[in-house]
Each structure stands twice: as C-alpha cells, then as structure tokens.
C-alpha cells in the first residue's frame, strides 16, 4: 500500500472536521484536547509525517504521555483509547499502515482502579505552606501551592490566570476560558467561575504582584498572574513546583524513606516526582477538597468552587472515612 504523507496538525484538523457531525461538542472538544498532546509530542520528536508511525513509536508516546501528565491508569486509558480511534481513522485515509490501531495499547483497569486515593493530607499541606510562608514568602511556588490548596484549582486554571483576573478590593479571582489566546480550562465555558479569596491568600497575591512577579506579558499581550522571566509559566513548571515543595525533606528537613540527600535522585530539580512522598497537583487538589469537606463546608459550595459535579466529587475526590462523615452529620442533630 502506498501511503500519502500528512503532518500531525493537518491530520488532527481533518479528523476533527470529519467527526464534527457524528459526536457532541463536548466529545469533540475532549478529542481535540487529548490529541493536542500527541501533536505536541510529534513536534518534540520532530515527526512531521505520520507515515512513519509504528507500534514502537506509539508505545514511546504512551510512556511519554503517562509521565508528562502524571496520568492515573484510568486517565491513561482514556488518552490511549482516543488515540486508537484516531489511528484507525488515519488508516482510512492511507496515512498509516493497515491495522496499526491494534498496536495502540491501553491499561486494563482492575476494580476500583478508576479512583486514585493519593492526596496531600491537611497536616502536610500546612507544613508545606508554612515553610513557603517563612522561607520563600510570595515566591512563585508559594503563590502556586497557595492557590491550588485554598481554591482547589486545577493546573490549567492556575496557568490561565491573568493579573487582571484578580480583584484585590472585592477579594476574588476569575477563572476564564480563553482558547483563542493560548489558555484553556477544563469544561470550557462551563468551567468559568468567580472564586472568593481569604485575607491571607489575597495578601500573598498582593505581595507577589507588587514585589516578586516578573513584569512580563505573554505572546498575546496578556499579563499572566503566574509568570517567569520568559512569560506565562508553563503547566509543567506549575506541576514541578508542586512536586518539589511536597518532598518532605524540603519542609521538614527529614526523609521518611531514609534516603541520603547527597545521592537521592529526587533531589535533582527536574526529578522531584521520583520522591515517593511528593505529590502531583491533582493529589494536592484532592487533599484541598477533602480538607474543605472536613471543615464542614457544604458539598454544593465545594462542588461549585472546585468546578466538579457532586457525583464526581463523591467518587474521585471525597476521601473522608465513613466514620468522619457520620461524626460530621452528628453535629447537626443537636438542634433537632
């Protein structure tokens, strides 16, 4: 069979145009988002013609995507299932060899594996934020972890924020979907919301903006709230901040794994995720949600604030034990 050359960006555009009449807008958006990672990987690997795809290259992408996104098995399965559908479509336009889609592998989920239990506990979060407040006050990591914990934002939401989205007088911050200007949030327009901020969080943001924030614009002329000297902080930078500062040795000076800091691989700036006790932004968000629920914040308030449905909150985020839930309910019985 003679293959017809096609670059990754064009292939994805044609695929999405072809599926537009068959699937919902939400599904189309999800496929666009997932395949965007594949296009990004192709760029990094200098793959400009999909004719070269093979079982090996697809496996290399799977490993890269797992690490790049810190994916749980359920999330990895979703990503690879979408890629398999895309590769099968590529076969239909003679862009790849026949039956290549059968070589796109996905994890086989065991019972309960669609839910991750890893989260940052409240006492650990307090240690981390106290350390940052004392030794790296109003630094970028302090701002990032403060927002993630107190507002329960996803990484994409923190990445999307502009200075102008923050209202210091009314003490709130706006999360806005701007796909035409390089920043997207989960659930698109449906994920837009205003989030109230406490006095302490506002003080950290005020001092960051006034004294420590690199005064730069991004490529669209916007003023990113979380910036580096090069512009808007990349999502991977935000994830790295989370991994680095949740290593216990950073905030406590002690290693629960008896590792030697001089030889520990996780002490390398880009390898903090190798620490068994460091956590991803998703685990921090899960911990923040559970902390709010344990603090008797009503579930509907947490749901709106964190932009997650009540059903998803119950299944994936609420890590209170049955006894904790019972004792909280008991508090409401005194007035009956």
Secondary structure elements and pairings:
Elements: H1 8-19, H2 25-44, H3 55-69, H4 73-92, H5 122-135, H6 140-151, H7 155-160, E1 166-167, E2 172-175, E3 193-196, H8 199-212, E4 227-228, E5 231-232, H9 235-245, H10 248-252, H11 281-294, H12 299-306, H13 310-317, H14 322-330
Antiparallel strand pairs: 1-2, 2-3, 4-5
Report on the structure:
Residues 6-91 form the Core-binding (CB) domain. GO terms for molecular function: DNA binding. Residues 115-330 form the Tyr recombinase domain. It comes from Halorubrum salipaludis. This is Integrase. Residues 111-116 have low confidence and may be disordered. This protein folds into two domains: 8-103, Orthogonal Bundle (DNA polymerase, domain 1), CATH 1.10.150.130; 122-285, Orthogonal Bundle (hpI Integrase, Chain A). The chain is mostly helical and 336 residues long. Helix 2 (25-44) packs across helix 4 and helix 6 packs antiparallel against helix 8 (199-212). Strand 4 (227-228) and strand 5 (231-232) form a beta hairpin. The strands form two sheets. It has a three-stranded antiparallel beta sheet with strand order 1-2-3. A two-stranded antiparallel ribbon has the order 4-5. It contains 14 helices and five strands. It is globular and about 65 Å long.
